[in-house]
Amino acid sequence: MAAARPGHHDPCVTLHQDEVPVDESVVRSLLTEQCPRWAALPIRPAGAGTDNTMYRLGDDLLVRLPRTAEKADSLRKEQRWLPRLAARLSYPVPEPLHAGVPSTVFGLPWSVYRWIDGAEVRPDTVSDWAAFGADLATAVRELHALDLAGATRDGELSGYRGGSLHPCDEWISGALDDCRRTIGAEIDVDLLERRWRDGLARPEPSGPHVWLHSDLKPTNLLVRDGRLHAVIDFGGLTVGHPDAEHAPTWDLPPEARHAYRETLGVDDGTWTRARAWAIAAAAGGVAYYWHTFPAFVAECRDRLRAIVADVD
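Request: output the structure for the sequence above.
Response:
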């Protein structure tokens, strides 16, 4: 199994002010020091996301290294919780094989995972978008149905997705103002703000807390034979209300999104709040990564266009 797939970002480009530098020589030194049985295997870049840099190790392994000390908390969370969840899920998820510790060459924890073979979610890899949406809904239902086994919404499992929209209003309003300056000529940001406020106006979510992946965007899903095969990158794992879990469906074609909602039976209030979460993540991404991560900004712009075009 793997923790991530090849991304669209150059791992040598800095995204955050406090990043810890890493390259193939650093990875080799860590392996020699802590995992000598793997130290001679070939190492090659496997992409980078907003939180981690990845290197393929041989044919069957993946090394994941957090970009900053803050991002390291998510990696520790995977090391702690994924082995407990994996045995209770029917679909593959990342399998941590080694929990690396800080060293003189890299002062943060890091991980080695088993590689999961699969394709990225794209029009040429998904054969039936409605079936894919239903598959994703089934995977989400299974995760949400797991017993919390004593886990609570605090500490490392208290991610803002899973809570209320209202604490995010100030920074999302600022992000939408940034979007007006950068993409306002091509996307109706005023409409997006109205839909954000529609979510704020809905009653607060109720019901029991559940396990949440929190970032089910297409780059964190793997396809095999045209169908959903695996869910990866659980760095955002949290416990809370499920509204934000549904937000990445606006990254999918309408037929996938509609099948997902129908399969789960998501009510209007939850769906309106989910759309607001989708706006929040995308507007925040455009504002924060505008100068540093153009491929991710493009993904966020596509999501915002889909929300504007959505007739639900």
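The chain has eight helices and nine strands.
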